[in-house]
Design goal:
Blueprint: E1 2-11, H1 15-26, E2 31-35, H2 42-46, H3 48-65, H4 80-103, E3 110-112, E4 115-119, E5 122-125, E6 129-138, E7 142-144, E8 157-159, H5 160-163, E9 172-176, H6 180-191, E10 195-200, H7 211-222, E11 226-229, E12 232-239, E13 242-248, E14 254-259, E15 261-264, E16 268-270, E17 304-306, H8 317-333, E18 346-349, E19 354-359, E20 370-376, H9 381-385, E21 392-398, E22 404-411, H10 414-426, H11 431-435, H12 446-460
Helix pairs in contact: 1-8, 3-4, 3-6
C-alpha cells in the first residue's frame, strides 16, 4: 500500500475542485487533486456549454421559421446529424481546454481513483493508495436524478448528459420535469423538429417564485411548447423501440402516448455515495450533506471543507468556482479560516423568453421590507422592433434606504439585464443612483429604467410626478 502525505487533498477535479486546488497552492500548501471519473467538468462536458450549443442551433432554426413576420421568406430544413455533429465537436473542444489545463498540473499532484474516507484525515484512493491529508476539500459534484418509475425503461430513459452523445435527433421525447434543464432542452428540441411534451408536477416553470412572472412564462413558452403542468406520470413501459407513457393531466384527463425516449429532468443529487462520510464524524443534514458555513465552506469546526454542486446550495458554475476558491484557501490557512467573497445570487434560464433572478426577491424578503416596481415588455420599443415584446421585469427596493435589492424577469435579453442589475445590487446602489446612469435609445434596457421609475414612485409614496418618457420615441 502506497501512502501519500499532503497538506490539502481535493476530491473532485471539476470547476470547484480545480479552484480549490489552485487556491490551496497559491497559499503555499502542498495539494493533491483526486478524480475518480473523466476529466472535463460538468459544465464543459454535459452542462452549460453543450446545452447552449443545442439551444443556439434551435434559435437559428426558430428565427428562420418565423422570419416571414419580418417579410423575409426562408425555407427551413433541420439536419439532425449535422446539428449533433457540431454540438459534439464543439463540446469536445471545450472539454479539451479543461483537460489541457489539468495536464499542466504536475503528475505527483494528481491522482486517479475513487476516494473514500477512512478517517477525517485519511483517504483510500482506489485499491493501493492511502492519502494522509491534514485537510480535505470535498468537491465531488452532482449527478442527474432519475425517478424510480423510469428505471425499468433501460436505454429509453435518458438524463440530460445522454442528449449530447446523440448522433442524430430523435423523432419524439417526453421531458419529465419543468425546471431550467427540462425547459431549455425541451424547447430547443422542439424548435429542432422533435415532437416534445414537457411534464411538470407543479404549476411552476423554472422555479419562478413570483406568480405573475410565472404566468407570463407559461403564456409565452406554452404558446409554442406542449406544457403539461400539474401532470402525473402514471406509468412508463418500454415497447419495442419506444416508450408507452400513461399520464394524468391537472384536470384528471388521462392520456396514453408513445415517445422514442423519456428524458428525466427532475433535478440533480450530490455525489456522496461511497464517500465514507460516516467515518469523518461530520454532522449531516436530512439530505446526507455535511453541514457547512457558506461563507467559509468549512464543515462544522472540522478540517474538512466542501464546495460546488455537492453542497446543494447554489449549483451554478460561477458559484462553484467561488466556493472552491474559498474552500481551498481556508483549507490551506486552517485553523485561521476567514469568510470569502460570496457574490450577489444570480440565476439565468436560457429559454425563449429568457428567465432570470438576481439578489433578493419577494420569496426571500419580508413583506414590510420592500417595494416593487415593474414593466411589461409588450409595448417596449426595442423589444417590439425585434418581435420579442413578451414578458415582464420586477425590481425590488428597500423601504427607507431606497437601496436596490434584486429583480426577477421573464423577457428579452434577460441574460444581459441580469448582469447589469446584479452589478448595481452588489455595488449597493440606490434606485436614484441607478436612474442617474445613462440609458441609450432605443434599447431593451430602457425597460429597466421604466421599472426603476415605477419602483421609485412606490418607495417615495408621493403625489408629485416623476417625469415619464416613452421608451419608443426619440429624446428623453
Amino acid at each position: 500500500m502506497k501512502t501519500v502525505n499532503v497538506d490539502v487533498a481535493v476530491i473532485g477535479a471539476g470547476s470547484a475542485g480545480l479552484s480549490a486546488f489552485r487556491a490551496a497552492k497559491a497559499r503555499g500548501a502542498s495539494a493533491l487533486l483526486i478524480e475518480g471519473g473523466a476529466y472535463g467538468t460538468t459544465c464543459a462536458r454535459v452542462g452549460c456549454m453543450p446545452s447552449k450549443l443545442l439551444i443556439s442551433a434551435a434559435d437559428v432554426a426558430h428565427a428562420a421559421a418565423t422570419a416571414d413576420a419580418f417579410g423575409v421568406q426562408a425555407e427551413v430544413r433541420i439536419d439532425g446529424r449535422a446539428v449533433m455533429r457540431r454540438v459534439k465537436s464543439e463540446r469536445d473542444r471545450f472539454v479539451g481546454f479543461v483537460v489541457d489545463s489539468i495536464d499542466g498540473i504536475a503528475a505527483d499532484e494528481r491522482l486517479r481513483g475513487r476516494a473514500r474516507f477512512l478517517a477525517a484525515d485519511t483517504l483510500q484512493v482506489g485499491e493501493d493508495v492511502q492519502v494522509k491529508a491534514a485537510r480535505v476539500v470535498i468537491a465531488t459534484g452532482s449527478a442527474p436524478a432519475v425517478p424510480d418509475m423510469l428505471h425499468g425503461l433501460g436505454n429509453r430513459a435518458l438524463v440530460s448528459d445522454d442528449v449530447f452523445d446523440w448522433d442524430d435527433l430523435p423523432e419524439s421525447v417526453a421531458v419529465v420535469g419543468a425546471g431550467v434543464i427540462g425547459l431549455e432542452l425541451g424547447q430547443a428540441l422542439h424548435r429542432l423538429g422533435v415532437r416534445v411534451a414537457v411534464f411538470g408536477r407543479s404549476d411552476r416553470l423554472a422555479s419562478i417564485a413570483d406568480d405573475e412572472l410565472n404566468q407570463a412564462a407559461i403564456s409565452c413558452i406554452g404558446n409554442e411548447l406542449d406544457l403539461r403542468l400539474g401532470a402525473t406520470i402514471v406509468s412508463a413501459q418500454p415497447e419495442n423501440d419506444q416508450v408507452t407513457l400513461h399520464s394524468r393531466d391537472a384536470d384528471g384527463r388521462e392520456r396514453t402516448e408513445h415517445y422514442r425516449y423519456v428524458l428525466a429532468a427532475t433535478g440533480r443529487k450530490p455525489n456522496l455515495a461511497g464517500l465514507g462520510l460516516e467515518n469523518t464524524g461530520l454532522q449531516l443534514d436530512d439530505r446526507g450533506i455535511p453541514r457547512f458555513d457558506p461563507l467559509t465552506m468549512q464543515c462544522s469546526d472540522s478540517t474538512i471543507f466542501i464546495a460546488g454542486d455537492v453542497d446543494g446550495d447554489r449549483p451554478l458554475l460561477h458559484e462553484a468556482a467561488d466556493e472552491g476558491r474559498i474552500a481551498g484557501s481556508n483549507a490551506a490557512r486552517y485553523p485561521h479560516v476567514a469568510a470569502g467573497l460570496r457574490r450577489i445570487p444570480m440565476a439565468i434560464a436560457f429559454t425563449d423568453p429568457q428567465v432570470m433572478a438576481i439578489g433578493q426577491i419577494a420569496r426571500t424578503l419580508k413583506p414590510k421590507q420592500y417595494q416593487t416596481g415593474h414593466v411589461s415588455f409588450a409595448n417596449q420599443g426595442r423589444s417590439r422592433v425585434m418581435l420579442q415584446n413578451r414578458g415582464m421585469l420586477k425590481v425590488y427596493g428597500e423601504r427607507g434606504t431606497h437601496r436596490f435589492l434584486g429583480a426577477e424577469m421573464v423577457g428579452p435579453r434577460a441574460e444581459h439585464i441580469a448582469h447589469l442589475l446584479a452589478w448595481a445590487c452588489q455595488a449597493q446602489m440606490t434606485v436614484d443612483d441607478m436612474l442617474a446612469m445613462p440609458f441609450y435609445h432605443p434599447v431593451v434596457e430602457e425597460g429597466v429604467r421604466t421599472a426603476l421609475r415605477d419602483l421609485k414612485e412606490n418607495l417615495v409614496k408621493q403625489v408629485y410626478e416623476i417625469e415619464h418618457c416613452s421608451d419608443c420615441t426619440p429624446g428623453i
